[in-house]
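Could you please consider the sequence and fold following this short note?
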Amino acid sequence: MGQGREPRRVRAHDGELGAAVARAQEGDEAAFAVAYRLVQPALLGFLRGLVGEDAEDVASDAWLEIARDLGRFKGDGAGFRGWTATIARHRALDHLRRQKVRPRASALDQDVLLDLPGPQSTYDQALESISTEAALDLVRGLPRDQAEAVLLRVVVGLDAPAAARVLGKRPGAVRTAAYRGLKRLAKQLGVQGVTDDGPRTLGESK
């Protein structure tokens, strides 16, 4: 399922992001603003898929923690995306617990990839056929493990190993959850055939 391949737009910015983070760790406030600009849209989309209209408040809390702990981060641009997603996810789960909302748990968490053939990529057909907001509304209706996997892979643009680190799972389990989530979305949209031959961020043009 698209192993090792990330959305081209996200990958293209990782060098710039890594350089900005390094400068920000040295006290460059303008560089931190650059890192924020590169990360925030996808991070906000990820949170919208988890907490809906409260995403901006949760994102604000996450960025306070990111800024506070920035000196502890070690890694490149891709690593920074994963690190910020982990912090944002923790804040989102805290928020859901405070709201006494329990995201649905998936009945299946297998470390197995179902490889069903399909003529088109679900990312191309399903996600690009609807608006970002509509897509996130649909994603929120998925079981939690599927929703998080789809959001991290498609919205944040993490590869399976990076998404697995965020979720504390094995890459195969994340691939399977993302596959099943996308299959559900495709079914809701009337798309036939599910593959993962080139994930994209929501709204990214070809």
About this structure: Residues 1-9, 104-120, 193-206 have pLDDT under 50 and may be disordered. The CA atoms of residues 8 and 104 lie 31 Å apart. The first helix runs from residue 8 to 25. The chain has nine helices and no strands.
